[in-house]
Hints:
Radius of gyration of chain B: 25 Å
CATH class of the largest domain in chain A: Alpha Beta
Mean pLDDT of chain B: 78
Strand order of the largest sheet of chain A: 6-7-8-3-9-10
CATH superfamily of chain B: MetI-like
CATH architecture of chain B: Orthogonal Bundle
Distance between the termini of chain A: 51 Å
CATH superfamily of the largest domain in chain A: P-loop containing nucleotide triphosphate hydrolases
CATH topology of the largest domain in chain A: Rossmann fold
Low-confidence stretches of chain B: 1-30, 288-300, 550-561, 564-568
Oligomer: heterodimer
Shape of chain A: globular
Largest interface: A-B, 45 and 41 residues
Number of domains of chain A: 2
Order of helices and strands of chain B: HHHHHHHHHHHHHHHHHHHHHHHHHH
CATH architecture of the largest domain in chain A: 3-Layer(aba) Sandwich
Number of strands of chain A: 20
Distance between the termini of chain B: 31 Å
Amino acid sequence: MRMPWNRKSDAPMPSPGAAALAALAVAGSASTETGVIHLEGVECSYTGSDGPAISNFNLRVLPGEFVSILGRSGAGKTTALRVVAGLEQVSSGYVRVGGQLVGSSFVHVPPDQRRIGLVFQDYALFPHLSVERNVEFGLKDLSPQEKSVRISSVLELVGMSGYESRYVHELSGGQQQRVAIARALAPDPVALLLDEPFSNLDRQLRAALRRDIKKIATESGATTLLVTHDREEALATSDRIAVMGDNSIDQIGTPEEMYQNPVSASVARLIGPCELIPGVFRGGVVVTEAGAFPTRITTDDSIPDGRQVLALMRASELEIEPAEEGEQRAATIELREFEGEFSEYSIRLDSGTLLRVRRRAANGLETGSRVRIQTRNGSKVIVFPS
Amino acid sequence: MLTVRQAGFAGRQGGCAGVTFSNVISTGWKTTDGKRPPAFLVASSAAVALAALIPVGYLLVRSAGAGTEWIDAIWRTSTAAIVGRTFLLIVLVTIISVAVAVPVAWLTVRSNIPLRKVLSVASVLPLVLPSFVMATTVIEMYSPRGVIQGWLSGLGVNELPEIYGLGGATLVLVLMTYPYVLLTVRGALRRMDPALEEAARAMGYGPVHTFRAVTLPMLRPAIAGGSLLVALYTLSDFGGVALLRYQTFTSTIMIHYELINRTLAAALSLVLVIIAVMLLLGEGFTRGSGAYHRSTVGAVRSSRRVDLGRLRWLGAAAVGLPVLIGLVIPVGVLIHWLVRGLLNNQELIPLLIPARNSLFVSLLAAVVTVMAALPVAILAVRFRSRMSRLFERSIYIGFGLPGVVVALSLVFFGINVAHPLYQSIWMLVFAYGVLFLPASLGPLRSSLLQVSPRIEEAAQSLGRSQWRVIFSVTIPLVMPGALAGGAMVFLLTMKELPATLILSPIGYKTLSGSIWDAASDAFFAKTAAAALVLVLVAGVPTAYLTLRGHGDKSGVSDSSMKFGEALR
Lengths: 386, 568
C-alpha cells in the first residue's frame, strides 16, 4: 500500500513558497471513512492514578480539517493528543493515523514512525540548535538543496524568514511558537497536533497568532487537531469542535451547531458564556423565577411535563423591559456596562442569581430599576433535564 | 520484553503489513508512569550495574568459600569495637565538614568578602590532594617533631596536642572532604530562587532568622548529598588513617589483606558493603522527590550579595582558614621538601612519563565512566521504576569500597574470567569506572532533570527513533553535566592510589604511583615533585570548573553546579 508519507517529495518548483505549499498538502489517500486521525473506543490510563485519563474516546478528523478538542483542564485533552502522537500507549480501542492502525492493546507504533507533527505547549524547541537546524531536524531522505528549499519555505510560511541562525533563547515567545510550527510542518506530516499552543502568550499576541495558525493550516492544507481550554480559540479556528467532558467526548460538531444545539449543560457552559437557571417544564414552556419562556430541546430524549429542568440563558438571546408596578418575577438591574452600540446589563434575580442581558444602548435603563426578562423576538430557550 | 516500541512498524518503505503483535505476550516491566524503557537502555544499564557489582560478587564468593569459620573470625577480631571507632570517625568528620563547608559556601556565593573569586576556587582545591600526601604533610607540620613544634619550642611550649589518633585522622579527613559538601551546597545556593528569601525578609524575618527558616531547610538535600560523599570517603579511606595510626574498618581489612587472611578480609569487606548501603539508604530518605526540571525555560534571577561591611575581612579570614590549612600549608610543605631535596642534590625521578600516563589514563577513565553512567542516568531520570533505582543504587556501592578491595576483586576477576584484560590498561580503567561511576552519575542526573522530556518527545515525533534521539538531543543537552562529571572522575582518578598500584600493567608508572614509591623510599624531593605536578594537573580542571560558575547568570546549564552535584 502506498502510504502518504512514502510519497516522494515534489521536485522544486519555481517559487519556494509554492513548492512548500504543494509539498505540505496532505495526500488524500486517507479515506473519509477512516479519516486522517481516527480514534475508536480508546482507553488510556496512567499507572498509579485512579481511573483512566481517557476512556471510550471516539474522534475522527477528516483530511484537511481543523478540529479542536475543547475541555476543562484535567479532562484528558492532552492525553488524547499524546495517544495520537504515540507518546502514550492505549489499553483498549483502536488508533488509526492515515488509515493505518497505529495503536491498540496489541499494537504500538512508536511516535517516530507515525509522521505526526506535534507542537507542544512549551514549544520544546532544541536549545542547542539554531532555528534552521531545529526545522531541519525532522527532514530525512532529502538532498541538501531540497532540505534548504524546504526549510526556507516553511520558515516563510510562518513568517520567520531571516531568523535562520538565531538560537531559541534569542526569540520571543511568539517567535518560538512559529518556529515550533515550522519544525512540525517541515517533514510533511500526516497531521499537525497543537497542544494549548497559545497558553504561554499574552492576550494580543494570542489573537494574532490564532489567525496566523488558521491561515497556515488552510494554506498548507494540513489536517490539524488543536487542544485547548479556551473557547474563543476553538470557536475562531475550528471547522469542528469536540467538547470533552470527563475522559471522553460529549459532543462534536461545527462551532455553529455546537452553539445552537449543545447536548448538555456542561457542553453549553464550555461553548459560550451563559447562565443555567432551574425551572419546571410544562407544555413546551419552562417556568423559572425569571419568567416563563418557550423552549427547545436539543437532546434526543423528550422531557415529560412537570420535570425539573435547567434553562440556558444567554445574554444575546434575552431582552429586558421595564417591569410594571407590583409585577411578580421581576429582577433588578445591578450593573450596566456600555459597549458602544449595545449595553450589557447584569440583572440580579430575587434568588440572587445573576443573569446578563444585551440591549441596544439607545434606550438605556437605570441601574436599580426593576425589569421583566423575556426572550428576544420570541426565540426559544434551550432546556436540559436536570 | 520491551520489543514493541523499537520494532514498531516494519518500516515505512515496506508498507503497512508490519504491525507487531509481540506486545501481546510481552510482560515487560513498566515505569511508575507506565512508560516502557527501550531495551538498549535497560540492557546497557544492567551491564553497567552488574560490572559495578563485581567486587561485591567477588566478596561473596570468597567469603562463602571459607565456610562458616569467618563468622567466628569476625567476632574474634573485636569487630564491634572497630565498627564503633569507624562510626565515631565518620560522624565527627561529617559534622565538622558540614560546619566548615556551609559557612564557606555562603560567604563565597552570597557575600561581598574580598578576594571572593580567588577564595572560592582555592577553597575547593584541597580536593586534589591525595589523602596520603595530605596526611604526610599534616604529620610534618603538627607531629611532636614537626615544624610547628619547632617554632613553638622557642616560645617555651614543649608539647603539642597529640596528632596521631582520632584527632589527626579527623583533621586530615575534614580537610580532604569538606570540598564535597562545599560544592553541593554552593550549587544549591546558586540555584535557589532569591524570591523565597526576599519573601521571608518582607514578612519581617531578619537575615539570620531567614537563613535558619528558609535557606537552611532548602539546603538540606545538598548538605545530605555532600555528607554522603564525606561519609563514604571516610569509610573507604586508607592512606590518611593508616599514616595517622587510627584503626578503622578499612585499615583493618587492609592489614588482613596484606598479612593474614584474605578470606577474613573479604568477609570484613562485606560488612563494609553493608555499612555503605546503610549510609546510602539514610541519604535516600532525605532526598525526597523534589528535584524536577523547571517547567518554564528562563533565567534564574541571581541573588544580590549581602554587604558584610567591615565584617567582610573576618569573612575572608573564615574562608581563608581552611584554605590555609588544607591547601597552602600542604603545598608549602611540598615545596619546602622539593627545595631542601634539590639543595641536597637529591635526584628527581623523571616525571614526564608518569605525568603523561596519569593524564592519559585519567582522561580515558573519565570518558569511559561518563559513557557508562549515561544509560543508567537516563533510565533513572526518564523511566523511573524500581529496577532503574536498583541499577542506580548498586552503582553507588563502589564509592564506599576501599580501592584495594575493588582492585583485588578485579585481579581475581581478571585471572579467572577476563584474562585478556588482565595486566592491560583497560583493567585499570575498569577499576576506576567501578570506583567513580557515582561521581559522574550525579551531575548527569541533575543535567537530565533540567531537560524537559517534551524536547525528547518532540524529537521523536519528528521521526527519530529513541536511540537516535538520545544521540542527537539528549547527549548534547546534558553536555554540561557530562563535562562536570568527567572532570570529577578525572580528578579522583589522578589521585587514586591502591587500585592504581595493584592493577597498573607492569612498568606503567603514574603520578600517584610515583609519589607512593618515592615516599616509601623516603625520597622527599621526589615525593614532593610528583605531588606538586599532580596538584597542578588535577587543579587546573577543578579551578576551571569552579570559575565557570562565576558570572554565569543563567544557572541552567552551569557545569560548576553540576560539578558540585557529583554523587547527588
